[in-house]
Amino acid sequence: MPQLLQFILDWKYSAIFVGTFFEGPVVGLLAGLFAKVGYLNLFAAYAVHVIADLVADFTYYSIGYFGGEKFLPRAAKFLNFSVEETERAKVKFHENGKKIIVLGKLTHVIGMPILVAAGLVRYPAIAFIAFDLVATIIKSAAIIGIGYYFGGYWQKINNVFLDVTLITWAVVVIPTLYFIVKRLYAKKKTR
Q1: What is the pTM assigned to this prediction?
Q2: Per residue in 119-130, pLDDT tens?
Q3: Per-residue pLDDT tens for 26-61?
Q4: Burial of 105 (0-12, 13-18, 19+ CB in 10 A)
Q5: N or C: which end of the chain has fewer CB within 10 A?
Q6: DSSP structure string for 98-156
Q7: Separation between Cα atoms, residue 52 and residue 50, nearest integer Å
Q8: Cα–Cα distance between 34 and 9 in angstroms, integer?
Q9: Is 157 exposed, middle or buried (0-12, 13-18, 19+ CB in 10 A)?
Q10: Up-side HSE of residue 173: CA atoms within 13 Å toward CB?
Q11: For residues 144 and 129, what is the distance between their CA atoms, to the nearest angstrom?
Q12: If you average pLDDT over every residue of the chain, what do you get?
């Protein structure tokens, strides 16, 4: 963490932009803290954090959009999904895209896979950007605000993010892995 602190102090807004790609919430907390103590302008730090987060999210969306044609059929076959099941999943994503994108964005663990999935299912880019923008504005304001007002406790706050991440793993990722293993086992059984 000391290297990250020094990186932000040395490079300021460029560091916020680059750092947000790799660890957005921690960089947001630190940006809020540095704004509080006068090293950064709060509004400039917030604007850079939002822009960097949007660029990162659109990068993930683009990975799914442009890489998905090759990846999706292989992943579906590997997980023993039929073409009909894959199509139903795409339809469900399109029907509930706003909720899925906002929920994915506001969580720390499942965000990236959902952003990639939005591209995979060819969710309309303009709608993706609109919903992602709303969620990013809220999330960045909350994280930078927490850093600004409670910056002296940033390590404890980071531990709260870790706890939320672990809870999300328990509630979302572990059942998803169970589902995948179950599908793979069923695939083996049918052979």
Answers
A1: 0.74
A2: 988 999 999 999
A3: 889 889 988 988 889 999 999 999 999 999 999 999
A4: buried
A5: C
A6: HHHHHHHHHSSSSHHHHHHHHHHTT--HHHHHHHHHHHHHHHHHHHHHHHHHHGGGHHH
A7: 6
A8: 8
A9: buried
A10: 15
A11: 21
A12: 82
The length of the chain in residues reads 191
Q: Are 157 and 146 in contact (CB under 8 A)?
A: yes
Relative orientation angle of helices 83-95 and 97-106, to the nearest 10 degrees: 80
User: Rounded CA gap, 158 and 54, in Å?
Assistant: 22
CB neighbour list of residue 143: distance below 8 Å, 6 or more residues apart: 24, 25, 28, 29, 32, 49
Q: In percent, how much of the chain has pLDDT > 90?
A: 34
In angstroms, the CA 8 to CA 99 distance is 33
3-state class of 14 per DSSP? helix
How far apart, in whole angstroms, are the C-alpha atoms of residue 175 and residue 167? 12
